[in-house]
Structure formats: C-alpha cells, structure tokens
User: Which sequence fits this backbone?
C-alpha cells in the first residue's frame, strides 16, 4: 500500500454493478515519504510533497430494501490504490451489521447483504473499512468510515395511529360545519418520491359527511341532521399514499360522529284531556292530579314550566323539578253545590328556547284538566262568612234585640241549624242568642265607658248532627249615650301677682267628657250662680272647648286674702245636655318687677329659681363644716370609750394580781357582783347577817380564812380567780389538787397542814388553808 495520506483517510474504490451510487468526487491528498507501516524495512528519507490524482472516492453505498432474491445482494466494492492485484492485501469491515447483515470478500473487497433490509426499521448503517497486510495482518492504511443507505420503496401503507375516532356535531348544523380531523401516518420516506404523500376519502357515510382530501378534516354534507331521527353515524375514512395514484397503498379507520341535541322540539302533552276527582272538603293546597308533557329533546332542553291559562281562580299548578310533572292543586275551597265540574287549561312552555329555531313553531302546548268535585256533609255556613258587626245603644234595656246572625246548611238536604254563644268569649253572659232564629239579645245593662266593643263567637251546628259545627265572630259596638257630664281636665290651680292689671289672662282651662257623641264635643263655660256676684275675675269662653280666666280689677293683697275659689259651670251639647261645676283655686303671690313669682302665703319662702355662684359655694362650705364637726364628735366619743375600757381592763388585772385568793374554781358558774373588784382596798362585807364580827378587826391570816369562807358560802359573787386555770395533777401526785372546789369550810375533811412543809413560797397559802389555833388566836 501506498504511504499514509496527510488527510488521514485511504481511498475506497467501489465498483457498483446493480446499484447506483452518489456522493462521489475528486479527493486530493499530499503524499509524504516516511517509514512504511508493514515493518518491511523501507528506509526513511526526506519528506517530499507530491500531487497525486486519485480515482473515484466512494464513501456511501445504496441498497434496495425488501430484496427478495435467493442470493446475497451485491452492495459494492472497496479498493485501495496500493492493491496491485497480487493478493497480498486483506480487506475487512466493522460496525453496524458487519459479519451478519453485511459480509466482505477479503481478497476482492466486494460487499454483499445477506439479509432482507427494511428502511422503516433502519434507514442506514455506518461501517468502517480496513486494508491489512495478509501476512502480518498489519493495517496498511487508517480505517475509513462509510455508510450503506437503505433505499426506500413503497412498502408501507398509511395508518391511523390515533383511532378510534369519536367526534360530535350539533344537529341541524349548516353544510360544511367542521366536525373533527383525522390523520394517517406513512412509514415510507417522505423525502423520496410520493410513497409518503397521503390523501383522504370517505368510503362509507359520504351521504352525510365529507373529508378534506389533503387535511383530513371531516365536515357535514347535509343541513338536516336530526338527533331525534339518528343520534350517531359511523364513517369509514380511507387514506391512500402515492398521492392517490394507482398502485398506492391505503389504510382506513372508523369514525363515530355523535349528534348533539339542540332545543328544536316543543313540549307535547300525550293527551288533550285529563280527568280527576276531588272532594269539596279537601283543604287548600291538596294535590288534584299530575300531568306531564314530553319533549323529544334531551338534557336542559327538556326543562319546562307549567302555567294555568283557565281556572286559575280556584286551582294552581307547580312543576316537580325531579320528574318535570305538573302538579295541579287546590287554590281556594271548592263547593259542590256551586259548581260540580271545573275545566282547567294547563300550558307547558320550554324554559330554554333557542332563538335560531323560533321559526320552527311555538315551543308550548296545552291540555285540559277536568276536575270533578264530589259532595260531602259540610258544616253550616255563616252569612257573611267573615263575621258580623252589630250596634246597640248603651242605654238599651235588658232583653233588647242586638242583631240576628244567619247560617245555613250548604248541603243539598239543607238541614236546620241551631245557634249558641261560646261562653269563653262572653263569660259575664251579657248577651243571649235564640237557638233557632239566631237573634242576639241583651242579658245585662251596658256601659260604653266601661267597654265600647264586645267580641263574641257564635256557634252553628246541624240540628241532627252536632259534629257538623262552624263558628263565626260577632263584633258588637256600643253606641254612646250622653250620660256623663263634662269635668275639668285637672284640679286646676292658678297664681296671680298682687299688682295684676285688669283684664289680664291668668289661666286657660279645658274639660274632659267620657262620652263620645258622633257629632263631636261642644262645651259651654260660665261662672256658677254662686259666683255671679264675683267682682274679682271674669270667665271668657274661647269657643274651642276651652275658656280663659281674666282679672276684673287690680290691686290684690295677699295679706288680706291670699286664696280665691272660683266655681265654673261646664255644659256639654247633649242630648240631653249635662253639666258639672269645677272649682279653680287662685293664689295671690308676691312677684318681682318682671312678674316672676317670689313668694305666696301658702309657703314661707320661695327661693329664687336661680342662685348666684357665690351663694352656692357658701352653702357647700357650710355643709362641709357641719360634716367635719359631726365626724370629730364621733371620734372623740370613741376615743373616750376606748380609754374607759382600757382602765377597766387594767383594774381587772390589778384585782387578780392583788388578791391571790382562790374562788369557786373554773366550774363555779354563779355570778358575782363585779363592783367588788373595782375597789382595790375596800372589800364588801358578807351579805349574811350571821357572818359574825367585822373581819377587818381580825388578824391578817384569820381575815384571809374568813374571806375564803365567805367566798365559798356566797354564791352571788364571782370568783376572784375567774381568770386563772387550775389543773389536777393526778392521784399519784403528793400535792394532790390545788383546785378551789374543795376549799376550807366547816364541812371540809381535807388536811392542808403539809403546805407548811413546802417552803417559804407556800407559807401564805398554808396560812389560808391551815386550821386556826384558838390559843394562838387568843394570845
């Protein structure tokens, strides 16, 4: 082989027999002299550049896919310029399919394909060629990469990969409305020939739909698609390659087109008349029957509402939202005797009307609902049904007729009716009613001023069936009679100043009247006859049911007369006219220059309505001083009382300390005169007249013994040691008990002589309890 090329590639010469070749051209390289690669000992010389004209350079081969021959398919030939045909060069290939799909003749460099190739599976193979020395197996030149392309033939039909296809279109859509798009794929090479050029057509269903030849968009072919007639269509769409030319391959798919609903159908009642029956006693709101209108549409296009065109006075209709039924019910009570059959016209109307289809006709329908009313036994009916209003004069006599209530049996038999008054509404039995005629009469005298209206309830029952009962309210108005005289509205009092002028208006009076004449009140005022000679005041009738009092003279003196009583006569307009006399009290008072009242004889002093700020402050200061003084007095009293109690407690403690005498002990509950403890030095004498001589003239130890004896014998004085506590030490103690319970007495059997042996501390106590020595006492 020739020395290596500076381009790093060696020349492949391919001989193509059955195949055509491409990508060929001239390849120039600079050959340099150097060491040979075969280890043949060629010597190295100076490098030289030489322009060499190369042969055809083949780096790409083509092989037809889907070859069906029995022999390996010739692909091409590789060759190097260094091969002089002596057979000392070996050709090898490596890469994709080398040795399996593609084989090479080592001697000639011919490449063959041993397997059937499919371009749709693999479009090309990349391999590398190598020329080696047959003996040493050393590479003569670097590897050269080449490509074997699989040449496409039209062997793949178009396929619809996204199926199955489901589309939808609204009914009554215009021609040419787009429904959906279908797409077919062809695995052939789209860059080579027309193998992958696909066109579309409709095989089945072309009467209703068409498909765009190039885009695959399916469109409507007619404008009268009706969902109610046929709600879906199955189309077969074909895709053909080779642009539809003869010999092209094709594939097909099924397309389902659903026709969606529009509101193009009105509601329809299956019947033009429905018949129902209902009792005349059925309550208001009772359903009479159900009717329904059908609609060929679906979904919300079937929503409808119902209304009554005739008969709405007694019946009403509602729509059941679940079932879309019309529910006819009673609106007002029915009466068999008045009308036995009712024809109710019910109309059904679509809720959602499509304006595009209004020209198709009216989207409403009507039917007749015939309602037959059946008869039942009904209670009596009052006339008027809403109740009666009657009037009676308040001065009517007992037994007078107030009014008549009427009721009848509404049934065909028209049974007699009996009346009564519900006594819970007339507990005082003011009214009576005739059970046969229904005439209401007075049972007691009336008084409009006590009760102007009486509301009673009258009951009516069938004479032979008291369960058939009804009630009616009767309102009785008591008409007024002028039987109450007018009276002054309030016990009037007036005040005038001493310097009042003649003709001065000092007061305005009004009256009240418990009566209510239909023409209204009209009162007349005048002074009572006993005041006709009055020279001080005059009365002026204002003519509006009020009167004014004026002064007739000037110069009133409250010291001469401070109160005037003015009797006033009031008369109403009747009939008959009634009157009453009221007295107006007028007080004479002292006034300031502006006419403000300062004082009257009835009160000692009337303080001015407004006090100056200085007067208010002085008043508050006085009140505060009084409060402080009261608090100081209370504090001093409490302090003195505390001192007195402290002195008493100190005296009590001094008494206890001063006298170490035992009293009756803690069990002694008799009371002492505590005043005996107040004096520290003066002891009371024994209360008994038999106590003997004065103990103050006796020796000290005898005085002590006598004191103990007197304390034990006198149960009316408290013990001196009432604040001391004595405890019993027990039977084993040699001291035994020191309690004052067993004290020295004429009957005591205790021996206290041992106290003298206890030492100086008990000598005083031993003197109190040891028995006296008469000899020592006499000496």
Assistant:
């Amino acid at each position: 082989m020739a020395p290596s090329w500076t381009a790093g590639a060696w020349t492949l010469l391919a001989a193509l027999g059955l195949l055509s070749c491409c990508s060929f051209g001239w390849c120039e390289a600079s050959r340099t002299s150097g060491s040979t690669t075969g280890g043949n000992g060629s010597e190295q010389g100076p490098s030289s550049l030489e322009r060499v004209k190369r042969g055809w350079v083949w780096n790409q081969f083509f092989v037809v896919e889907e070859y069906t021959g029995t022999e390996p398919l010739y692909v091409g030939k590789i060759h190097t310029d260094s091969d002089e045909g002596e057979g000392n060069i070996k050709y090898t290939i490596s890469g994709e399919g080398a040795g399996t799909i593609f084989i090479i003749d080592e001697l000639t460099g011919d490449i063959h394909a041993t397997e059937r190739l499919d371009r749709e599976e693999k479009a090309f193979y990349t391999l590398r060629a190598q020329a080696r020395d047959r003996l040493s197996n050393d590479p003569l030149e670097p590897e050269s990469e080449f490509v074997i392309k699989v040449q496409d033939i039209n062997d793949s039909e178009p396929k619809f990969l996204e199926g199955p296809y489901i589309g939808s279109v609204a009914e009554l859509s215009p021609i040419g409305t787009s429904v959906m798009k279908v797409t077919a794929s062809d695995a052939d090479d789209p860059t080579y020939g027309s193998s992958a050029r696909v066109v579309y057509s409709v095989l089945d269903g072309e009467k209703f739909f068409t498909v765009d030849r190039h885009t695959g968009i399916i469109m409507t072919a007619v404008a009268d698609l009706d969902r109610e007639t046929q709600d879906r269509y199955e189309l077969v769409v074909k895709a053909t390659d080779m642009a539809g030319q003869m010999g092209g391959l094709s594939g097909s798919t099924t397309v389902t087109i659903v026709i969606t609903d529009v509101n193009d159908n009105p509601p329809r009642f299956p019947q033009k008349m429905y018949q129902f029956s209902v009792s005349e006693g059925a309550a208001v709101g009772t359903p009479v029957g159900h009717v329904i209108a059908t609609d060929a549409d679906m979904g919300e296009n079937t929503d409808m509402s119902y209304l009554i065109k005739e008969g709405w006075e007694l019946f009403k209709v509602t729509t059941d939202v679940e079932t879309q039924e019309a529910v006819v019910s009673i609106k007002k009570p029915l009466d068999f005797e008045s009308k036995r059959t009712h024809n109710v016209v019910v109309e059904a109307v679509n809720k959602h009307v499509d304006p595009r289809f209004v020209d198709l006709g009216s989207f409403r329908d009507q039917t007749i609902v015939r309602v037959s009313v059946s008869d039942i036994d009904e209670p009596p009916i009052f006339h008027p049904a809403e109740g009666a209003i009657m009037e009676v004069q308040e001065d009517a006599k007992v037994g007078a007729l107030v009014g008549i209530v009427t009721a009848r049996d509404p049934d065909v038999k028209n049974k007699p009716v009996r009346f009564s008054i519900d006594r819970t509404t007339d507990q005082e039995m003011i009214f009576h009613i005739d059970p046969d005629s229904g005439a209401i009469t007075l049972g007691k005298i009336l008084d409009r001023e006590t009760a102007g209206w009486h509301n009673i309830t009258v009951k009516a029952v069938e004479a032979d069936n008291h369960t058939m009962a009804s009630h009616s309210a009767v309102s009785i108005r008591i008409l007024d009679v002028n039987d109450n005289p007018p009276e002054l509205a309030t016990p009037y009092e007036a005040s005038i100043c001493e310097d009042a002028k003649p003709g001065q208006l000092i007061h305005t009076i009004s009256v009240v009247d418990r009566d209510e004449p239909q023409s209204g009140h009209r009162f007349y005022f005048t002074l009572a006859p006993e005041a006709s000679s009055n020279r001080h005041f005059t009365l002026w009738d204002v003519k509006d049911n009020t009167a004014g009092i004026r002064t007739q003279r000037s110069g009133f003196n409250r010291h001469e007369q401070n109160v005037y009583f003015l009797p006033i006569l009031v008369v109403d307009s009747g009939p008959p006219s009634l009157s009453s006399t009221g007295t107006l009290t007028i007080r004479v008072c002292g006034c300031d220059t502006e006419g403000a009242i300062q004082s009257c004889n009835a009160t000692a002093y009337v303080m001015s309505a407004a006090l100056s700020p200085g007067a208010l402050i002085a008043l508050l200061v006085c009140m505060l001083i009084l409060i402080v003084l009261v608090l100081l007095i209370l504090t001093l009293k409490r302090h003195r009382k505390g001192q007195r109690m402290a002195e008493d407690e100190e005296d009590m403690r001094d008494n206890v300390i001063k006298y170490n005498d035992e009293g009756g002990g803690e069990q002694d509950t008799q009371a002492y005169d505590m005043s005996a403890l107040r004096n520290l030095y003066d002891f009371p004498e024994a209360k008994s007249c038999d106590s003997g001589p004065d103990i103050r003239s006796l020796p000290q130890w005898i005085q002590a013994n006598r004191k103990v004896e007197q304390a034990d014998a006198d149960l009316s004085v408290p013990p001196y040691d009432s604040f001391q506590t004595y405890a019993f030490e027990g039977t084993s103690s040699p001291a035994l008990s020191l309690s004052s319970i067993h004290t020295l007495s004429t009957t005591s059997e205790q021996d206290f002589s041992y106290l003298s042996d206890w030492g100086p501390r008990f000598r005083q106590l031993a003197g109190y309890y040891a028995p006296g020595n008469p000899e020592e006492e006499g000496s």
